[in-house]
Design goal:
The chain is α/β, with parallel strands linked by helices. It folds into 2 domains: about 10-45 and about 270-365, Aspartate Aminotransferase, domain 1, CATH 3.90.1150; about 50-265, Type I PLP-dependent aspartate aminotransferase-like (Major domain) (Aspartate Aminotransferase, domain 2, 3-Layer(aba) Sandwich). It has helices at about 5, 10-15, 25-30, 50-60, 70-80, 95-105, 120-130, 145-150, 175-180, 240-250, 260-265, 270-295, 315-325, 350-365, and strands at about 35, 90, 110-115, 130-135, 155-160, 190-195, 215-220, 235-240, 305-310, 325-330, 330, 340-345. Helix 6 (about 95-105) runs parallel beside helix 7 (about 120-130). The longest helix has 24 residues, at about 270-295. The structure holds pyridoxal-5'-phosphate.
């Protein structure tokens, strides 16, 4: 019997997630030394110095299993956000919490409603659980919550809302969310994925933790983005005590490593690092948008640390040429957006270098060089 005959049917249905190109891979392929990664919405400033110091302090403890309950990190999160420790779960990245939600709540054939395009992991996780995935198109590059609501049936179990969204960088407002939540069928769990929460400065951006008592709601956040700790893999979520109990019952006992736990606990304290990161992104985003305007390029207005920009039919070519210059951006064909790239806002020298190379490539293309 072939391996293909042995594998679960749902595994044959998925397209494995392809992350942004790793720096190490580009170094190997192009024999380059100096690489700028602007592909995976990481923090170009790095992690908080407090997090790095905490890791150094605990390095010698790695012979021991981590605390499976993440007690100290939960305590720090509970204090910071005014939550109960029992209402928290820590994940190996917020990716893991998305997967835990599916693992805990989705039976074969249950409906999972998502937007399209959006963060790819929702569809992947749901497909692997044999769910029926209902994908609702974006409207003008934003979640269309009214259309999403209209697709909810008595078989809908889970709705994922990335707010802000990736890859668009757009967000849904408080009013939109409130109207969405009003009268939602009781069996629906709404998963608010807020990996980019800290970057948003818009007044009408909702505080979804306020809705936790209203129906079944999960709110997830990440340490990979503004906290600059993507390499450690750590994220968290809050929900009712009962939901958290079921998420905990399907997670691996030691899902979050020891160094990630101490680093995240220390990073929560470092307000200055968060403010510096926000400022870098605010300034860099304005700069890049102004330059895109000058180049007459369409882009989606972003409240995050990345921008989705339309480069037309040559986007794939431009992506490859940028790679050759040591600049990694995100190629978007996996999202069905092959005319676009997604660029993560970097430090100002990185933003300038990216633009300089982009302009050169566009100029050459125009001249037919
Ligand atoms: C919308 C969204 N949710 C979740 C994640 C996963 O983040 P983490 O690194 O915490 O797993 C990402 C990462 O890119 C994201 O863009």
């Amino acid at each position: 019997m072939s391996v293909k005959q042995l594998v679960r049917n749902c595994v044959l249905k998925i397209k494995p997630y392809k992350p942004g190109k790793p720096i190490e891979e580009l170094k190997r392929e192009f024999n380059l030394r100096d690489i700028r990664k602007m592909a995976s919405n990481e923090n170009a400033l790095g992690a908080s110095a407090k997090a790095v110091a905490a890791i150094k302090k605990h390095l010698a403890d790695i012979n021991r299993y981590p605390d499976g309950e993440c007690f100290y990190l939960k305590k720090a999160l509970a204090k910071k956000y005014g939550l109960k420790v029992e209402s928290l779960i820590i994940g190996n990245g917020s990716d893991e919490i998305i997967n835990l939600a599916v693992r805990a709540f989705i039976n074969k054939g249950d409906e999972v409603v998502i937007a399209e395009p959006t963060f790819l992991i929702y569809k992947l996780a749901a497909t692997l659980a044999d769910a029926k995935v209902i994908a609702v198109p974006l409207k003008a590059y934003r979640y269309d919550l009214a259309a999403i609501k209209s697709k909810i049936t008595n078989r809908t179990k889970l709705v994922f809302i990335a707010n802000p969204d990736n890859p668009t960088g757009s967000y849904v407002t408080r009013d939109e969310i409130e109207s969405f939540l009003r009268g939602l069928p009781k069996q629906v769990i709404v998963f608010f994925d807020e990996a980019y929460y800290e970057y948003v400065e818009s007044e009408d951006y909702p505080n979804t933790m306020k809705y936790l008592g209203r129906g079944h709601i999960i709110v997830s956040r990440s340490f990979s983005k503004i906290y600059g700790m993507a390499g450690l893999r750590i994220g968290w979520a809050t929900a009712s005590r009962e939901i958290i109990e079921y998420l905990n019952s399907v997670r691996e006992p030691f899902n979050v490593n020891r160094l990630a736990q101490v680093a995240a606990t220390a990073a929560l304290d470092d307000k200055k690092h968060v403010e510096r990161s926000k400022k870098m992104v605010r300034i860099g985003r304005k700069f890049l948008c102004e330059e895109f305007n000058k180049l007459n390029l369409f882009y989606v207005r972003s409240v995050t640390n990345f921008i989705l920009v339309n480069l037309g039919g040559k986007a794939g070519f431009i992506y490859s040429r940028l790679l050759g210059k040591g600049i990694i951006v995100r190629e978007m064909s996996d999202w069905g957006l092959s005319n676009f790239i997604r660029v993560t806002i970097g430090t100002m020298p990185e933003n300038r270098l990216f633009l300089k190379e982009l302009k050169k490539i566009m100029f050459e293309l125009k001249k037919g060089v």
